[in-house]
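Tip: read the tokens left to right.
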């Protein structure tokens, strides 16, 4: 439908693209996304233990309902975030995402039943879908095509270092003060700071898209930019080789992240590790993931996306295999770091690959579709790993997910084109 297609006026001659040219606003958005990650990180260590110790949810499937709720709400919100940001602007969507997050710590602290925790995760998923998606889109807007991998590396590094630091901090807070309320007060502080920075300092980036679209349209057919939202969904999900390969890899990546989030703390606690050790393990994975993305995103700008993604999926598979067969802190710490490094090869590179192929006019919607599939992996991972853990135990569930992750890497190797990043740079 014509109404699905955003209208772009002529760009302002004062608008320039590039990381250096937009560095203050870019770094502000990096800081905002670190707070978005911290809002998610408040749950990574504490919530699986809360499910078992305070709400007595013994079956893994029941305990993982909060990840299912989070994954579904975030995935659906991702789909609409791109369309909303095209229609109303990036900044209003970012503000709305922070406002949705405001009740989350209150529900986590005061919830008398597990349904309150699930409701908090529905809101958290909506908030993350709006804030994280919009932060990704705004950074793509600012830098243009040549440094897209670098931009996504900074974005995802900030977010997952926020997750890691908060997971570590909440582990120690829980040890000192209990599972509630202290760990979730940290999340409340992050939400207040993120909302304040967005309202007071973040600027709209829609005009940067106009600049890039004007250049892009000059070298490609105008029809290529005039796609409805339904056409963008079909192209990103199934028709385009690179876009569809990235979408399935994103889903599988977050499938194993959902497994790690929901079951690993329970696995570690069952082996007799204390809360401090569990917090270290919960933080090591996203910390390695976050730091390494500062290198991998930029490297994929030069070396191409395809083999970074393929290698990353295979490295994740190896790490999950170690988790499945190890039994104590040392091997699990090594596996957490390896899993983080494998994820770092994949995460910013997949986002950059979507940006390489998508036309600037419908790129925000394509990112939303990709993130729909990617964060749907949380829901798939919660269901699959929960059922398998109930039936066969956590190690068997981890081994199955390791095999699925390796198969996903093989799909990328066969299906994804290798030089989309070079083609995109030449047309901009």
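Filled-in amino acids:
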């Amino acid at each position: 439908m014509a109404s699905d297609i955003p209208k772009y006026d002529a760009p302002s001659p004062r608008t320039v693209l590039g990381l250096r040219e937009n560095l203050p606003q870019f770094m502000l958005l990096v800081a905002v996304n670190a707070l978005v990650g911290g809002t998610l990180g408040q749950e990574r260590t504490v919530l699986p233990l809360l499910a078992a110790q305070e709400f007595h949810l013994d079956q893994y499937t029941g305990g993982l309902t909060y990840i299912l709720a989070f994954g579904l709400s975030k995935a659906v919100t991702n789909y609409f975030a791109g369309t909303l940001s095209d229609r109303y602007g990036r900044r209003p969507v970012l503000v709305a995402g922070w406002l949705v997050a405001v009740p989350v710590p209150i529900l986590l602290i005061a919830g008398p039943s597990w349904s309150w925790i699930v409701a908090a995760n529905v809101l958290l998923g909506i908030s993350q879908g709006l804030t994280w998606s919009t932060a990704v889109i705004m950074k793509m807007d600012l830098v243009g095509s040549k440094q897209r991998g670098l931009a996504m590396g900074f974005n995802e590094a900030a977010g997952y270092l926020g997750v890691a630091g908060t997971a570590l901090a909440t582990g120690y807070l829980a040890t000192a003060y209990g599972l509630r309320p202290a760990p979730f007060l940290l999340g409340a502080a992050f939400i207040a700071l993120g909302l304040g920075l967005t309202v007071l300092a973040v600027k709209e980036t829609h005009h940067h898209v106009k600049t890039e679209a004007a250049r892009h349209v000059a070298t490609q057919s105008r029809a290529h930019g005039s796609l409805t939202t339904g056409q963008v969904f079909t192209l990103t999900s199934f028709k385009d080789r690179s876009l569809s390969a990235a979408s399935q890899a994103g889903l599988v990546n977050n499938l194993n992240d959902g497994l790690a989030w929901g079951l690993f703390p329970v696995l570690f606690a069952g082996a007799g590790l204390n809360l401090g050790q569990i917090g270290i393990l919960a933080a090591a994975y996203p910390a390695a993931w976050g730091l390494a993305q500062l290198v991998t995103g930029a490297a994929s700008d030069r070396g191409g996306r395809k083999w970074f993604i393929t290698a990353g999926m295979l490295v994740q598979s190896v790490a999950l295999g170690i988790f499945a067969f190890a039994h104590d802190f040392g091997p699990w710490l090594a596996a957490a770091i390896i899993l983080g490094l494998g994820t770092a090869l994949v995460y910013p590179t997949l986002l950059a690959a979507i940006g390489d192929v998508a036309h600037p006019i419908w790129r925000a919607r394509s990112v939303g579709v990709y993130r729909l599939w990617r964060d749907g992996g949380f829901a798939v991972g919660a269901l699959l790993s929960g059922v398998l853990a109930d039936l066969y135990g956590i190690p068997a569930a981890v081994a199955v997910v390791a095999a699925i992750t390796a198969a996903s890497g093989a799909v990328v190797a066969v299906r994804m084109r290798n030089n989309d990043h070079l083609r995109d740079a030449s047309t901009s």
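The chain has one domain: 19-427. The first helix runs from residue 23 to 41.
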